[in-house]
Design goal:
43% of the residues lie in helices and 16% in strands. The protein is α/β, with parallel strands linked by helices. Strand 4, helix 3 and strand 5 (116-121) form a beta-alpha-beta unit. Helix 2 runs parallel beside helix 3 and helix 8 (226-236) packs across helix 14. The longest helix is centred in the middle third of the chain and has 19 residues, at 134-152.
Length: 399
């Protein structure tokens, strides 16, 4: 069976990780697989997309991402439609096309191909933007209905969590079919592999007696990253200077110089660390490589996961597989992956409460080893790569 993925920007985010894992899973099951994308920077992508594991084609990269910081959604639609037209013009004949994130190209694919169209919805785009000005409200009054209409034209819809499924149903009221949940997974083999990298290679001033709290998220305001800094500030504020030196917060995240928000928010967070008095205990990393990310997850005492109402959240699964407890906001996808008090802690997005959970992790109040083992077992039982691959294969065979 011939499967083509259509994805807007093949970077290093959670949505991109899912597409890469899905493509690898199908290739292992002897599908013919290709990924068509609008942007692919070989210095800012997952290794499978640059080392020959996956066939990647780029179309529409010449179209700008925005026009003076505006019309991002409209231009994303144009770029994805361009990619779909290239698929048609070059006479690709896939049996199934998996459209990810942006639904705008679905009509083109329905009209000009015989393929079955599967749309993976991470979250309705119309809920991810503000409408503060009259012009923005007018602009979205055109864009929003297009999203619902084009989404409805897919033969099948997948979502990443029960949380997203509920939001999908209440947002797209005209779509009567029930979306199916396909939980993202992680490639366990990548986490079991040994890498030739040490923490001193990444953070030269790291001390072997330091305990690390880790935050991994894109440098975007919606990821609620100031919460990690504020919680860490609460955590160390009553400790003596000598004891404070035992702890370090590492803020690591996807960073793309093309994205103005990444650049600005990174600066905001660095400045906030200075204001909170935690700058000397905090390390900021931009777009760490996969080996570095895995190293950090394995050595961290806990993952501080700050997004509120996160659609799913792949990083908590990665941490749990590395036997690292997760402290997360008690909303959205993490409520489906983390068992409070067993594999980590779920709490309100308040610095004091996050700090309390961090204190529990480093105290004798809980067994970090037992919590880490429970976390790994949960990933192996419910979110393994094999379970993901088998579910995806079943879905495609049923279409």
């Amino acid at each position: 069976m011939n499967v083509v993925f259509l994805h807007p920007d093949l970077g290093i985010g959670g949505a991109e990780r899912l597409i890469v894992d899905a493509a690898v899973a199908l290739k292992q099951k002897e599908y013919q697989v290709k990924i068509i994308t609008n942007h692919h920077n070989k210095d800012h992508c997952f290794p499978e997309t640059r080392d020959g594991t996956l066939n990647v084609e780029v179309h529409g990269m010449w179209i700008p991402r925005s026009f003076f910081g505006r019309f991002i959604a409209f231009l994303a639609y144009v770029k994805m439609i361009c990619a779909a037209l290239c698929l048609v013009i070059f006479r690709e004949k896939p049996d199934i096309i998996i459209v990810d994130q942006v639904s705008a190209p679905i009509p083109v694919l329905r009209w000009f191909t015989n393929a079955k169209i599967l749309f993976y919805c991470h979250f309705p785009d119309l809920l991810l933007t503000g409408r503060q000005s009259f012009v923005k409200r007018l602009y979205r009054s055109v864009i929003d209905p297009i999203e619902e209409v084009t989404t409805s034209m897919a033969h099948k819809h997948l979502v990443n969590s029960d949380f997203t499924r509920r939001v999908f149903k209440t947002t797209f009221k005209s779509i009567s079919s029930e979306p199916e949940i396909l939980y993202p997974s992680i490639n366990l083999l990548a986490f079991d592999r040994e890498y030739d990298v040490s923490i001193q290679d990444v953070i030269p001033d790291y001390r072997s007696d330091q305990e690390v709290f880790l935050s991994i998220n894109r440098y975007e305001r919606k990821k609620n990253l100031p919460l990690a800094l504020k919680a860490f500030g609460h955590f160390i504020q009553n400790l003596s200077p000598d004891v404070q030196k035992k702890y370090r917060l590492i803020m690591a995240g996807g960073y793309d110089e093309r994205v103005e928000e990444n650049v600005n928010h990174y600066k905001e967070l660095v400045n906030l660390s200075v204001e909170l008095g935690v700058a000397s205990h905090t390390t900021f990393l931009k777009s760490p490589s996969e080996p570095v990310k895995i190293l950090l997850l394995k050595m961290a005492r806990a993952l501080i996961y700050t997004p509120d109402k996160e659609h799913f959240g792949i990083v908590p699964l990665e941490a749990m597989y590395c036997r690292t407890p997760v402290i997360a906001v008690n909303s959205g996808g993490p409520m489906e992956t983390i068992i409070d008090g067993v594999t980590g802690f779920l709490t309100k997005d308040e610095p004091e409460l996050f700090s309390d959970a961090m204190k529990k992790v480093v105290s004798n109040e809980i067994s970090g080893v037992s919590m880490g083992n429970a976390a790994r077992t949960r990933v192996e039982q419910f979110f393994s790569f094999n379970a993901f691959a088998n579910s995806l294969n079943r879905i495609l065979q049923e279409m």
